[in-house]
Amino acid sequence: MGRRVELGEGTALVLPDDIPPEALIWPPLDFVVVAWPRCDERALHRKLCLARALVGDGVRFAAIQHEPDWFQVWREGAHFHG
């Protein structure tokens, strides 16, 4: 069953500003793309915390925007089929 069938078309995850990423439970998806254009030092710290929380809760791969680039994280031992 695909993500769109399971979670709905156009599904989005939202990280509230006042909650640490590791305090939430993230769904164990195959991949997550995080559009987050802010690139100051605080934003980078939150992005790294989010990356750890996503992978820790079972996300296999995450691409996270940090202008002008993106960084990628993946769960150790994750196997991808393309």
What does this structure look like?
- This protein has helices spanning about 5, 40-55; strands spanning about 30-35, 60-65, 70-75.
- With about 80 residues, it is α+β, with helices and mostly antiparallel strands.
- It has a domain at about 25-75.
- Strands 1-2-3 form a 3-stranded mixed beta sheet, covered by helices on one side.
- Strand 2 and strand 3 (about 70-75) form a beta hairpin.
- The chain is globular and about 35 Å long.
- It starts with a helix and ends in an 8-residue tail after the last strand.
- The relative contact order is 0.19.
- The model has no long low-confidence stretch (mean pLDDT about 85).
Question: Quick summary of this structure?
Answer:
This protein is α+β, with helices and mostly antiparallel strands. It has 2 helices and 3 strands, in the order αβαββ. It has helices spanning 3-7, 41-56, and strands at 31-34, 61-66, 69-74.
Uncertain stretches = none
Round the mean pLDDT to the nearest integer and report it: 83
Order of helices and strands: HEHEE
Record the strand order, biggest sheet: 1-2-3
Secondary structure tally: strands = 3
- Assign a percent range to the helix content: 25-40%
Taking all Cα atoms into account, the compactness measure Rg is 13 Å
Q: Globular, elongated, flat, extended or rod-shaped: what is the shape?
A: globular
| Class by SSE composition | alpha+beta
Classify the beta-strand content into a percent band: 15-25%
Count of DSSP-assigned helices = 2
What's the N-to-C terminus distance? 17 Å
Largest sheet: 3 strands, mixed
